[in-house]
Design goal:
Elements: E1 11-17, E2 20-27, E3 35-39, H1 49-60, E4 64-68, H2 73-82, H3 89-106, H4 108-111, E5 115-120, H5 122-133, E6 138-144, E7 162-167, H6 171-183, E8 188-193, H7 205-221
Parallel strand pairs: 3-4, 3-5, 5-6, 6-7, 7-8
Antiparallel strand pairs: 1-2, 2-4
Helix pairs in contact: 1-7, 3-5
């Protein structure tokens, strides 16, 4: 993908969520059609090159973005050694829900915008749980190479239209996404990007993810 980083209108924010402070980068273009919160996955952060590339494409399409760290700096240091936080789905989901609440209460520029969640890897499960807990706020969800199956019982309660995007060569994750999709009663779709592996590193693969996500969000924000 040609988009290497966010536009210069991106600015850092400190987010109070679930009794802790989280770091984020927010970018809201003029006349934004909505805002997308990125919920990163295993061992990642707001500096994920893949998420930042997709975020750049969304901003280009007049969608605001919030990239954030779901772990504090201390937790990230511990997690880098023990990996004890990256699969703590309840913790990640609670903080995602806290970020949604913070947006509504603390950012007047985003409070009235339609809101979507973009989850990757284990972050997809956290995004779906948060969508189930805030059904009147979350308008759409996109999962990239995600583990929506880890949302477990929350899948039955998700009302937001959900797009599951998986690489065609990521066979175990395709099966897990199919199982999760079977439990979703909300509008949903499973799209498989031909030739792509789990991280969508192949030429054009991430561009296709960005195209699918942009279309999904704009269609469901209209």
């Amino acid at each position: 993908m040609n988009v290497a980083k966010l536009p210069t209108i991106s600015r850092p924010v400190a987010i109070a969520a679930e009794g802790t402070m989280l770091n984020g980068d927010v970018s809201i273009p003029e006349d934004a059609a909505g805002i997308i919160v990125f919920v990163h996955g295993s061992g990642s952060s707001r500096f994920s090159s893949r998420n930042r590339a997709v975020a750049g494409a969304l901003v280009h399409a007049r969608l605001g973005t919030l990239l954030l760290d779901l772990l504090t700096e201390s937790e990230e240091r511990t997690d880098a050694i023990t990996a004890e936080f990256r699969f703590d789905i309840p913790l990640l989901a609670a903080r995602t829900t806290g970020v949604i609440d913070w947006l509504g209460a603390s950012m007047t520029s985003a409070a009235s915008l339609p809101l979507g969640l973009f989850g990757a890897s284990t972050g997809a499960a956290a995004a779906l749980i948060a969508a189930a807990q805030r059904p009147h706020r979350v308008r759409a969800v996109v999962s990239r190479g995600g583990r929506p199956d880890l949302a477990d019982a929350a899948l039955d309660s998700v009302s937001a239209p959900t797009l599951l995007v998986v690489g065609g060569r990521d066979e175990p994750v395709i099966d897990l996404n199919r199982q999760a999709a079977a439990r979703l009663s909300a509008e949903h779709e499973l799209r498989i990007v031909s030739g792509a592996t789990h991280l969508f590193e192949e030429p054009g693969a991430l561009d296709e993810v960005a195209r699918l996500a942009t279309t999904w969000f704009l269609d469901h924000f209209a």
